[in-house]
Specification:
CATH superfamily of chain B: START domain
Largest interface: A-B, 45 and 53 residues
Order of helices and strands of chain A: HHEHHEEH
CATH topology of one domain in chain A: Arc Repressor Mutant, subunit A
Number of strands of chain A: 3
Structural class of chain A: mainly alpha
Oligomer: heterodimer
Distance between the termini of chain B: 28 Å
Largest sheet of chain A: 3 strands, antiparallel
Helix content of chain B: 10-25%
Largest sheet of chain B: 8 strands, antiparallel
Strand order of the largest sheet of chain B: 1-2-8-7-6-5-4-3
Helix content of chain A: 55-70%
Strand order of the largest sheet of chain A: 1-3-2
Number of strands of chain B: 8
Number of helices of chain A: 5
CATH class of chain B: Alpha Beta
Chain lengths: ~120, ~170
């Protein structure tokens, strides 16, 4: 399915599978670009492009150490996604808890009806 | 693990335009179906303990319409409607879903999702799976900002890692 190329927020930025891979790798700790290039099996320009998108939305931070550029995960930028999913999950959990109560009543009614027949 | 109730809904994002919600119920699927498709019963659970469902209309036939309205405890009104596309009694319902409260300028119908609810029974218990397939990616950012649609693919693993990194 085609998707918009916008990468203006964290939701869009992490929607790309390669970028999620990068985030997964960085979840294990800070890494230099070369490390990521090696782990992903992609060409350096592609990795750099993904890193730029992630940096633009604040999902990763970068610092220089000697000749290396070190990237690390910035969890705070991804918090909106985490919060959204948590809230969605909570809404449905509460609906389903209410549904449990309705189902208990329906079950009791079936038992009663079977007995009365 | 098999408590009678209070299981949590599992929400995953299997593709960048899908949301999958699953939950197991301690009841045969004919009853889960009944609770899912009977207006007066829907009114009792769809509120999610956040208000009162004032409208639950279900015309359960292909091309038939449904509409739910809830007045939340804070007074805000939340309304959804859609049409049934496919109905396999006690097994499967495919329907569109339109959120009526999108920000000004967005055509709600363009942001409809196609929802497939599947009821699977095993040993007298029913697993309900709701796959929400978003139809349009247009104006995604605005829709996400309204909190009603999300168009990302995801691993909840990642979210857990992110959550861990926030501590």
């Amino acid at each position: 399915m085609a998707r918009a190329a916008t990468t203006t927020d964290a939701f869009n930025a992490v929607a790309e599978p390669r970028r999620r891979e990068i985030l997964d790798l960085l979840a294990g700790g800070e890494r230099p670009v070369n490390d990521l290039v090696h782990a992903l099996g992609l060409a350096q320009p592609q990795v750099s492009k993904h890193l730029r998108v992630l940096r633009d939305v604040g999902a990763v931070d970068v610092r220089s150490a000697g000749r290396q550029r070190l990237y690390r995960l910035n969890g705070r930028a991804l918090k909106p996604i985490h919060d959204w999913v948590s809230e969605y999950e909570r809404t449905w959990s509460e609906r389903f808890d209410e549904l449990d109560a309705v189902l208990e009543e329906l079950k009791e009614k079936e038992v009663r009806n079977a007995r009365d027949e | 693990m098999h408590a009678t109730s209070s299981g949590t809904a599992s929400v995953t994002l299997p593709a960048d335009d899908q949301i999958l919600i699953t939950r197991e119920f301690d009841a045969p699927r004919r009853l889960v179906w009944e609770a899912w498709t009977t207006p007066e019963l829907v009114k009792r659970w769809w509120n999610a303990r956040r208000g009162e469902v004032t409208v639950a209309e279900i015309d359960l036939r292909v091309d038939g319409r449904w509409r739910y309205v809830m007045i939340a405890d804070d007074g805000t009104e939340v309304a959804f409607h859609g049409e049934f596309r496919e109905i396999v009694p006690t097994e499967r319902i495919v329907s569109t879903e339109v959120f009526e409260g999108l920000p000004e300028g967005l055509d709600p119908e363009e942001h409809a999702s196609l929802n497939t609810a599947t009821f699977t029974e095993a040993d007298g218990r029913t697993t309900l799976a709701i796959l929400v397939q978003h139809v349009s990616n247009a104006d995604r950012d605005a829709v996400i900002a309204s909190g009603m649609e999300v168009g990302l693919q995801d691993a909840l693993d990642l979210l857990e890692e992110v959550a861990a990194s926030l501590r």
